[in-house]
């Protein structure tokens, strides 16, 4: 396998442009290979060098495998997704070769719980570490953004590159491919429910406003991909919510939902008519694309297990359910006592048909909400007592297990921590049963989770495909370790930790991150100091040392000076004399003098303002004329508005009359139409019957007369052969002639 990777990588490097490998130093590479540490290769650079970088990475891992003699081992580069699979280590959580003897690492959760990551929850003092397997070395910025930049279905592993491509890896054969089509980085990847082990559909959406669907097929020699659909919604405005995509679990992998650039649509692939690019501007009708309106800017979306309902959460703190058949959205009102948060919502998933799980405040608060009525059955909040703000930026994924319930997996992009919250049914509600914290090697920027292929009810485990700043990695999460250990219970939720609604600012790029960008939150400005009234401003206490304790007032402090307007002929009061012997009294006297001086300045300013107002005030005659002009202007405006309203009413009445006359004429024409049709039909039938009768009667007469004459002639001939019948024959001829005449 190492030789094949090396050959394939060298071929890819040779096919690349001449300058694409300029950054690849072969001498340095061989030295590091000999030392057992291949150099990191950034295969996500400029699009022109992407193939060369990928080839160099293949060559790096392949040569390392050959030189180290690791058959089937991709070395530190981790190009084989199954490198090291089957090894009997399991030291992370005390696992044996069969996955048994897993110790519970979680704490039990009350209905409303808070979990402080800075409080000790484990006997060893630190959370247990998860077993990690390298997949590929890939240096990325690992942006703090909602959306999955990694996708996996157990057979295929995909992750987005910097220039907009998507790397595809077959986890069984280690074959690789590069999916192209996006012009900017992807923001969300999602696999459909696989209908076969070797074939599946992948949906990707990016900040370029494109939704791509590819069919993936695995073979022994290579992994192939073919385009199924390409829909262009237009570039996503800067600052918009991260574009998201989700598949319906219905059979056929035919329906999916996409939120991008403030729009939400349902897409039916079979109705698009092929893989050709489809332009879908706002407001345009496109076959196979159904718009969902009235929801605002959507941050996440998810289908119900049946595929009949689509759940949406928005930046403006709303939760919607959409009937997939009619595309009608209905808001679920759950903002009441027991609501999960006051901030923009950022996560939604269905536990079952009756319950949804929502997350908010950078996915630090989660709640289980009942669709019918919006009742919140439980909630949990992650917090840091040592760092109250900025400690978390979480991505979440709800993993449905075939064993019992589901597990909500939460990864913090700002710390090497991962949290698992089993969700189970309790009567007619669903609750968070426990919370387990695990340590990971690097902070996880984006991830997805699948049930391991060898998992069983006795040894359930999940595989997490993760992207961090250095590599693509796989973690093994034993689900039994997510359960609560004995006597380990989290704290009840302290309501003081949940900010009030009025304390939450409007959604910002930091609280609801925009597409694939990391924004340093700007600290809010300090609240403005309360304004002092003139009385407080002039008082001696206003000049006291702010650091002095409030319980020790200044000795001998004078009462506050009342600021009253003094008459113009009244002299300013003299400052009272203070004993010079007492330092405190002297200080008070100085303050009083300063206060009096300031009071005089304020009074002088007031007098000047009054003088200006008096000078500019109109005389009685001028004021009366001004009031008359104002009333005249008001009358003209009222008359003009009245004329406009009357003209509008008259025009509306004329239109209504014309419409009524048209309706009457149309009604009369419609009422007369059946009679006219019946008359025409009757006349036509009469004409047809008359013509038929005219033709039928002569034909019948001729036929009957001919028949009578023939019969009569035969009978007369027989009778005339005898002499006795001659008279009778003559009589018969006469009768026949009479009959013919009557006919």
Would you summarize the structure shown here?
With 743 residues, the chain is an alpha+beta fold. The chain is built from 7 helices and 34 strands.
Keywords:
743 residues; 7 helices; 27% strand
Provide an overview of this structure.
The chain has 743 residues and is an alpha+beta fold. Helices cover 27% and strands 27% of the residues. It is built from seven helices and 34 strands. The strands form seven sheets. Strands 1, 25, 26, 27, 28, 29 and 33 form a seven-stranded mixed sheet that branches. A six-stranded mixed sheet has the order 21-22-23-24-2-34, with no helix packed on it. Helix 1 (2-15) runs antiparallel to helix 3 (50-68) and helix 6 runs antiparallel to helix 7 (726-742). It starts with a helix and ends with a helix.
């Amino acid at each position: 396998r190492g030789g094949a990777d090396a050959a394939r990588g060298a071929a890819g490097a040779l096919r690349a442009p001449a300058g694409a490998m300029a950054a690849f130093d072969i001498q340095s590479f061989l030295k590091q290979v000999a030392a057992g540490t291949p150099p990191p290769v950034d295969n996500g650079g400029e699009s022109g060098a992407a193939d060369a970088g990928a080839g160099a990475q293949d060559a790096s891992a392949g040569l390392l495998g050959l030189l180290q003699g690791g058959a089937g081992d991709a070395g530190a580069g981790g190009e084989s997704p199954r490198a090291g699979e089957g090894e009997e280590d399991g030291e992370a959580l005390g696992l044996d070769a069969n996955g048994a003897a897993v110790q519970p690492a979680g704490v039990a959760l009350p209905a409303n719980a808070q979990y402080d990551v800075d409080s000790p929850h484990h006997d060893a003092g630190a959370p247990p570490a998860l077993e990690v397997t390298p997949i590929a070395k890939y240096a990325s910025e690992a942006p703090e953004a909602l959306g999955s930049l990694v996708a996996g279905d157990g057979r295929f592993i995909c992750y987005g590159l910097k220039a907009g491509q998507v790397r595809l890896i077959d986890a069984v054969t280690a074959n690789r491919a590069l999916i192209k089509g996006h012009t900017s980085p992807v923001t969300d990847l999602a696999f459909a429910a696989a209908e076969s082990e070797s074939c599946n559909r992948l949906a990707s959406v990016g900040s370029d406003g494109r939704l791509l669907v590819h069919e993936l097929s695995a073979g022994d020699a290579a992994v192939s991909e073919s385009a199924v659909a390409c829909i262009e919604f237009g570039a996503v405005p800067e600052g918009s919510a991260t574009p998201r995509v989700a598949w319906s679990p219905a059979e056929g992998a035919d329906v999916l939902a996409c939120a991008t650039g403030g729009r939400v649509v349902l897409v039916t692939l079979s109705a698009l008519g092929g893989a050709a690019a489809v332009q879908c501007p706002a407001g345009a009708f496109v076959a196979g694309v159904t718009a969902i309106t009235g929801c605002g800017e959507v941050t996440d979306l998810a289908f119900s297990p049946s595929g009949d309902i689509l759940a949406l959460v928005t930046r403006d703190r709303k939760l919607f359910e959409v009937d997939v058949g009619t595309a009608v959205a209905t808001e679920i009102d759950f903002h009441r006592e027991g609501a999960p948060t006051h901030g923009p919502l950022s996560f939604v998933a269905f536990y079952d048909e009756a319950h949804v799980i929502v997350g908010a405040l950078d996915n630090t608060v989660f709640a289980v909400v009942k669709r019918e009525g919006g009742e919140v059955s439980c909630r949990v909040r992650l917090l840091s007592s040592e760092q109250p703000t900025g400690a978390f930026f979480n991505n979440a994924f709800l993993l449905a297990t075939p064993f019992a319930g589901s597990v909500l997996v939460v990864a913090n992009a700002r710390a090497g921590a991962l949290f698992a919250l089993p969700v189970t049914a309790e009567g007619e509600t669903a609750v968070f049963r426990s919370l387990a914290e695990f340590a990971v090697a690097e902070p996880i920027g984006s991830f997805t989770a699948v049930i391991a292929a060898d998992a069983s009810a006795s040894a359930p485990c999940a595989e997490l495909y993760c992207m961090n700043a250095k590599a693509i990695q796989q973690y093994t999460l034993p689900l039994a370790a997510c359960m609560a250990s004995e006597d380990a219970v989290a704290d009840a939720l302290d309501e003081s930790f949940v900010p009030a609604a009025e304390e939450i600012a409007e959604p910002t790029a930091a609280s609801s991150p925009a597409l694939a960008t990391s924004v340093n939150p700007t600290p809010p400005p300090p609240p403005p100091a309360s304004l002092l009234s003139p009385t407080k401003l002039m008082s001696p206490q206003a000049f006291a040392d702010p650091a002095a304790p409030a319980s020790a007032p200044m000795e001998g402090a004078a009462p506050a000076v009342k600021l009253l307007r003094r008459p113009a002929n009244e002299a300013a009061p003299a400052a009272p004399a203070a004993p010079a012997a007492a330092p405190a009294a002297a200080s008070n006297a100085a303050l009083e003098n300063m206060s009096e001086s300031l009071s005089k300045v304020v009074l002088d300013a007031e007098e000047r303002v009054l003088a200006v107002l008096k000078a500019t005030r109109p005389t009685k005659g001028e004021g009366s004329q001004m009031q008359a002009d104002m009333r005249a202007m008001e009358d003209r405006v009222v008359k003009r508005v009245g004329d406009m309203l009357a003209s509008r009413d008259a025009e509306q009445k004329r239109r209504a009359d014309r419409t009524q006359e048209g309706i009457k004429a149309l009604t009369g024409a419609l009422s007369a139409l059946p009679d006219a049709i019946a008359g025409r039909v009757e006349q036509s039938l009469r004409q047809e019957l008359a013509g038929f009768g005219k033709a039928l009667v002569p034909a019948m007469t001729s036929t009957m007369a001919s028949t009578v004459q023939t019969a009569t002639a035969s009978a007369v001939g027989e009778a005339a052969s005898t002499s006795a019948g001659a008279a009778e024959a003559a009589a018969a001829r006469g009768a026949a002639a009479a009959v013919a005449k009557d006919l």
